[in-house]
Amino acid sequence: MVDKGLARSPEVIEALKAVPRHLVKGVDPELVYDPYKAAVTKPGRDGVNLSSVSAAYIQATQLEQAQVEKGHRVLEIGSGGVNAAYLAELVGPAGQVVTMDIDSDVTTRATEFLKSNGYEQVTVLTGDAGFGAQEFAPFDRIVVTVETTDIAEAWWDQLSDDGIIVAPMRWQSQRRSVALVRQTKDTLVADNIAQAGFVPLQGIGEERETVIALLDDAQQRATLRVEDSTLVDAEALTQAIQSDATHVWTGVNLPQEPRFAPLDLWLATLLNTVVLTGTAGAHEAPDIPQPSPIGRPTLVEGSSMAYRTLRPNGSEWELGVIGYGPAASDLAERYAEAIRSWSPQRRPQLTVTRNPSPTPVTTGLASRSVQRRNSTLTIAWS
């Protein structure tokens, strides 16, 4: 992870070295040291995992984003034990770490790991993290290790005046870990945005997205992840992707190992997208993406849809768009124009304002706001 730049600061590197993550009960010791794989500790009945030891690269990313210092008071939302131990290493004896989870199985496992490895100073709470831990507030840092769509009211109230919330937020079905720095009582701003995926938040702040199967058989599976299922006609789209595809090529080329995260966030800003994922075999016929835990931003209108694709172009890859359905050509052209307007030099900034504060006035190339229960999320690009 050091070689890949995921762990950069000496403090984070030393914390990662100090904690024996392979001693988590019930996990494969080799798996937990694979930097890109999570070790599931509690699967859910619907296929959505409820708890895991997060992939090491994600934990390193969040630790770097949090900028934890000696003596800090830190609240961790979502317990597993390992990350709380990392935080304890970072805050030192003068600091305090409180970790909480709604699931008693999870907190019991976390307590066992922490106590057996010398981290008795970490306070483990069982309860709905949407209410925070007022008795230990204020916190210099709040590190959220479960996927959320919003900043809970309690987190706003329990964060110090110059505090940082690190949270894996879902926006247009895109998932990003963001470091939100408090600017005012009702404003948080992040320009440190990293791709990440976590198990979903449970409890008062839970807002699950809907997973819609377009293809689902032994050979191939394609699904849409959507925030609002009423916008998707699954039956019509299933029929559409059995028909001939429309291809539009953009003339935009990427290197051999492209990074799609910034581009995908740009597309989700310009277009009202959902996310398409595919499994093995689904890319054969029809032309559905190969397996990806992240998926591709997809423009859906009625019985038509369009999403990005690639083709070889010498030593590079050319970006293109695949469209299906009666409006395939129109959607594919609009999608292609959004790709052509992209530049790797573009930088996003996420501003979160506490409701009912006014949505910030944005300037720049593109912006989009999404209103949640407690906050309004605005992405603006420069």
From TrEMBL:
Please state the protein's primary subcellular location: cytoplasm
Enumerate the Gene3D superfamilies for this protein. Answer: Vaccinia Virus protein VP39 (3.40.50.150)
- Alphabetical list of InterPro entries matching this protein: Methyltran_FxLD (IPR027573), PCMT (IPR000682), SAM-dependent_MTases_sf (IPR029063)
Could you say which EC number(s) this protein's record lists? 2.1.1.77
A single GO BP annotation from the record? methylation
Positions of region (Disordered) = 345-369
* Similarity annotation: Belongs to the methyltransferase superfamily. L-isoaspartyl/D-aspartyl protein methyltransferase family.
Supply the name of the protein: Protein-L-isoaspartate O-methyltransferase
User: Which organism is this entry from?
Assistant: Kineosporia babensis
Q: Taxonomically, what lineage is the organism?
A: Bacteria, Bacillati, Actinomycetota, Actinomycetes, Kineosporiales
